[in-house]
Amino acid sequence: MNRYLGICIALLSAIGAMGNAMANSSPIELKFSGTLLEKQCIHDSAEDAYRVELPLLSVKYFQHYGRGPTTRFALRFKDCSTATLNKQVQMVFHSPQVVNVDGVSMLPTEGGTGVVLGLNNAYGQPIVLETPFKAGVITQTGIGSSNELFFEVYPLVIDRNDVNPGEYSATVTFEMSYL
């Protein structure tokens, strides 16, 4: 029994001596590092602009129906950082001009045709320009990853009697954030 008591006292003394040695040693550094990304995802386009072509329609079509068919399109993003995995993408579409048609914000077009453009989210619900909305979720990350966010656009004439032939176009810009 005395032998076990002696061993325990010796062990406690050794542990105490180690604690004193650690307390008297120089401080240990703890370093933190990180990386700032210019963009969390890269827009997958060879150019700065993305062009969506709408179907060719006649003046008579618009005079009869007033609205053209919906064209579905996707904005693609690649090489998303791992920090964006499963993050909700919030977007805002910006336009220097907005026309309100029956409570829906629409894009006026250039070209004098009388056509305005409506934008919808992937579920066919109108996008309110200049207002943040949830556009989708990032599901793929890393080099070579690709994510698509889907939208719809459609042409509409405000006055069926004021439709003119010709080309029309409108431009929006967008911002993204991750929630």
TrEMBL record:
Protein's GO biological process: cell adhesion involved in single-species biofilm formation
Residue stretches in coiled coil: none
Pfam families (alphabetical): Fimbrial (PF00419)
Signal peptide: 1-23
Source taxon at top rank: Bacteria
Native organism: Serratia rubidaea
Spans through the membrane: none
Protein name: P pilus assembly protein, pilin FimA
Gene Ontology annotations for the cellular component aspect, listed alphabetically: pilus
Alphabetic keyword roster: Signal
Domain Fimbrial-type adhesion intervals: 31-178
Keyword Signal attributed: yes
